[in-house]
Amino acid sequence: MSKFSDGRKPVSCTVKAPVYLQIGESRAETAQSGVCVVDVALPFGKAVSIEEITFKNYYTAYITVRLLRRTSARDGPTKWCTALRDLLLMDNPHTERGSQDYYSIHRDQMLVEADHVVAVRLILKQPSSAWLAFSLEEIKIFPHMEPEPEKEVSDWLSDLILVDQHPDVEGLPDPQTVSSSIQQMWALTEVMQTNQTTASIGRFDVDGCYDISLLSLT
């Protein structure tokens, strides 16, 4: 799977060192059991509702997720419960496929509600003896966020702030003065059109010659 980079912020948590279970009573008789436990401590005194757990695999074939939950958000006793059992990470434990991929476990995949969680325990299994070690890397836990309810039209209208907007008339002439001037110009135009003569101005020449009686000598 591809690496996750959607900008979400994970919960601040402490991932403890993996503990490998041994078979045998004495150290000389112990052998690898193929089982490893990784505990993840969440912020002290704060229960978390989990949306998603992401990690990078390191040769783990199966994973089981257990949650330590409170009966309520703040107070109440805690109890371990299995949220996911033996999720397959490698198609074949003896081959490389899926051994170093990125994985995501969503709350919808879990068998219980991942709410009021105070600790997470990851139980890892690798039945193949081909790998000297197996674990998980880059473990991140993302909190569950309740979606905001959709607003009704009345809610949107109540959020609006009505602002009385007035046009900026600073620096402009007085409207009454402008209106009076326009009326005076219109009246003057009407008077000029009424008094305008329609007679054509005659010429002083007659048949290409000037009439001497029409000329004045100075």
Q: What does the model show?
A:
The chain is mainly beta and 218 residues long. 13% of the residues lie in helices and 34% in strands. It contains 2 helices and 11 strands; from the N terminus they run E-E-E-E-E-E-E-E-E-H-H-E-E. Strands 1, 2, 3, 5, 6 and 8 form a 6-stranded antiparallel sheet that branches. Strands 7-4-9 form a 3-stranded antiparallel sheet, with no helix packed on it. Strands 10-11 form a two-stranded antiparallel sheet. Strand 10 (205-206) and strand 11 form a beta hairpin. The chain is elongated. It starts with 13 loop residues before the first strand and ends in an 8-residue tail after the last strand.
- Tell me the helix content: 10-25%
Query: How would you describe the shape?
Result: elongated
Give helix and strand order, one letter per element, not per position. EEEEEEEEEHHEE
Report Rg: 45 Å
Total E-strand runs = 11
Give the N-to-C terminal Cα separation: 113 Å
Query: Helical segment tally?
Result: 2
Strand content: 25-35%
* Unreliable parts: none
Main pleated-sheet profile? 6 strands, antiparallel
Overall pLDDT, averaged? 80
Structure class: mainly beta
